[in-house]
Amino acid sequence: MNSxxxxxxxxxxxxxxFHGTELTRGPWDPTQQHAGPPTALxxxxxxxxxxxxxxxxxxxxxxxxLRPVPLGDVQVEVHADYVGRxxxxxxxxxxxxxxxxxxxxxxxxxxxxxxxxAGTPGHPLPMAPRPPQASEAVTMPFAGARASYxxxxxxxxxxxxxxxxxxxxxxxxxxxxxLGETPSPYQRVAVAADSGNGVSAALDFKTHSFVNCDLTIxxxxxxxxxxxxxxxxxxxxxxxxxxxxxxxxxxxxLIGHATQSLAVRSRG
Length: 268
Description:
globular, 14 strands, single chain
């Protein structure tokens, strides 16, 4: 094992390959990645493909999480399904250890300067309960001696109870997503958005698992700054299924929503 601490979530291996470091390690299994970093890695590839067409706003990203993503090497493939005048649809695959690990679809839009008229209902958009500077610093409960996703991000609690019911939590990357690169605003959102089911956990990690089987992120504008806020809550169906919903903010206000379908199981 390499004893040198990782300084990024991923390092580049060729044109489409990446090595996931220990900073991608998730809470469910020490050999598997948290789904946030690989989702952000796919987001990066889609952004690059769309930029070549002059499309700059990632309006939606949906991931179908087929298998756990192992620590180590992964590959990303992107395909343009349709490119139009104002929007394009993309599909992507995350591959590893000879298997398809996740499938993604995305909508990327062309932006134009078109200010919202004064007096438009629902505007200005709402703000997070508290800014990050006024929020309490907190640490994810699975942080420990072994490096993980909990070390990749910094968290501050704006309202609620961290990992114990509805919570509003700020996220900021402590390290780059890809070595030598500055993460885009969309990549920062993708890293954080997959944590809604964790930060708003309605069940105890020691007695239950509640892994998300998918993730959908909808954004109305490009996020600003390094901080991303999840106002998250988990609802349980009593049938082994659940739903985590997060309202997303930056320091300027509302940016969108994220949802996760959960597989809920007792560890007993």
